[in-house]
């Protein structure tokens, strides 16, 4: 066991990126030309305050949620899909990401006042980060996504208590469970704001588990997800496939439009599968193969295969944010509920779309789009394919004990 786990830990260590800690202290905005862009966001968290303005919040759990207004400066000259972390502190806004404003929000009324001042047509994006993220990691990643996608939405970050340690997988997973009600309440509060017309929920990796659990919880309480939540985007979702099928059904109906980004070369999800008893993860399926293709189509879920997309991420786990074409697809089309089947979609050489059971070429980056679905199960081993297929219909329905 040690021999098998050691290479995994080494891989994670080698692919980790180092950067200075404590970047949350605001610096003066740069006055050089060209003027840096800025991304203003609300940050809700179930993390514990660190007591240090350089970090704001740590990886421990807080029973009280906190809300913060943050502005991030993004240099004008940079490669799309990248986060230019400071090489030293304080950061240089002319060449690096930098926090230029931080203020705590103490009441819902203050939060709504901020939203009304920053509203963009009433559209809101709620982003939930994944495993092994610090508070500042998630702030900078969301700023990058918002800037590069050119999305027309107010960004809201929900950051949960991750210890940001590769050996803390189980702690992080339990922290998502701890934060389910916190996220549900945040979504309800946002939806209750008359200035908000529609909400897109976008979650990455382990954050996808948190997103689905909170939406499922909302569905169980009310019979369906809040009608203002129009779109749900799961990037590299670290979710057991059979569990996802249950979550999807228990969200109730009508459901938001659901899109998943998958990649069969995602090393982080391969490690997650190993840790969790070799159960396949939703983010690693091949949506063009059966039974996934039919079940996705049946459920109306869109699956976009990023296996052929190249990125600088050694684990192939963050392609959705690091590919300029994909992140723009998120901001310009998926968040607005547009389909991927018209002539305006161009992702890369050899990209195909499987929509409504038909296959067509959608352009010239390398993704497979599948319009599609609700019942997804564990990748069946060839010898057990028939038995696995027989479980699909049962997984979709709530069942009770019988005498």
Structure, described:
The protein has 403 residues and is an alpha/beta fold. It contains 13 helices and twelve strands. It has a twelve-stranded mixed beta sheet with strand order 3-2-1-5-4-6-7-8-9-12-10-11. Helix 3 crosses helix 11 (324-332), helix 4 (169-178) packs parallel to helix 6 (206-222) and helix 5 (180-191) packs across helix 6.
Would you summarize the structure shown here?
By secondary structure, the protein is an alpha/beta fold. Helices cover 32% and strands 21% of the residues.
Q: Please, what is the oligomeric state?
A: single chain
> What is the strand content?
15-25%
Rg of Cα set:
21 Å
What kind of sheet is the major sheet?
A: 12 strands, mixed
Q: How are the strands ordered across the major sheet?
A: 3-2-1-5-4-6-7-8-9-12-10-11
Mean pLDDT: 81
Kindly state the number of beta strands.
12
Count of separate DSSP helical elements: 13
Give the topology string: H per helix, E per strand: HEEEHEHEHHEHEHEHHEHHEEEHH
Helix amount, in percent?
A: 25-40%
Q: Which parts are unreliable, with pLDDT below 50 for 5 consecutive residues or more?
A: 1-7, 10-17, 341-346, 349-394
Span between termini? 43 Å
Label the structural class: alpha/beta
**Apparent shape:** globular
């Amino acid at each position: 066991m040690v021999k098998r786990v050691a290479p995994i830990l080494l891989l994670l260590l080698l692919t980790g990126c180092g950067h200075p800690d404590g970047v949350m202290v605001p610096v003066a905005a740069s006055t050089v030309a060209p003027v840096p862009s800025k991304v203003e966001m609300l940050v809700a968290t179930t993390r514990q305050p660190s007591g240090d303005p350089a970090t704001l919040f740590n990886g421990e759990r807080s029973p009280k949620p906190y809300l913060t207004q943050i502005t991030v400066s993004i240099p004008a000259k940079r490669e799309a899909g990248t986060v230019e972390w400071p090489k030293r502190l304080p950061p240089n806004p002319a060449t690096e990401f930098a926090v230029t404003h931080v203020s705590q929000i103490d009441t819902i009324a203050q939060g709504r006042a901020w939203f009304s001042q920053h509203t963009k047509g009433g559209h809101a994006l709620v982003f939930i980060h994944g495993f092994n993220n610090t508070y500042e990691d998630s702030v900078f990643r969301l700023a990058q996504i918002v800037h590069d996608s050119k999305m027309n939405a107010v960004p809201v970050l929900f950051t949960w208590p991750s210890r940001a340690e590769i050996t803390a997988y189980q702690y992080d997973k339990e922290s998502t469970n701890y934060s389910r009600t916190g996220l549900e309440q945040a979504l309800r509060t946002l939806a209750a704001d008359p200035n908000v017309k529609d909400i897109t929920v976008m979650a990455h990796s382990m954050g996808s588990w948190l997103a689905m659990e909170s939406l499922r919880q909302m569905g169980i309480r009310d019979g369906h997800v809040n009608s203002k939540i129009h779109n749900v985007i799961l990037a590299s979702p670290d979710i057991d496939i059979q569990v996802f099928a249950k979550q999807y059904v228990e969200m109730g109906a009508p459901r938001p439009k659901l899109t998943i980004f998958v990649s069969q070369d995602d090393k982080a999800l391969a490690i997650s599968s190993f840790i969790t008893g070799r159960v396949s993860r939703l983010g690693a399926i091949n949506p063009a193969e059966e039974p996934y293709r039919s079940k996705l189509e049946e459920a109306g879920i869109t699956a976009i295969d990023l296996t052929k997309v190249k990125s600088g991420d050694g684990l192939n786990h963050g392609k959705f944010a690091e590919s300029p074409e994909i992140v723009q697809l998120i901001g310009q089309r998926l968040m607005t509920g547009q389909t991927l089947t018209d002539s305006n979609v161009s992702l890369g050489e050899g990209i195909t779309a499987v929509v409504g059971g038909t296959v067509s070429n959608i352009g010239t980056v390398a993704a497979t789009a599948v319009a599609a679905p609700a019942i997804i199960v564990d990748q069946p081993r060839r010898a057990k394919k028939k038995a696995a297929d027989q479980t699909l219909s049962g997984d979709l329905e709530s069942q009770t004990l019988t005498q």
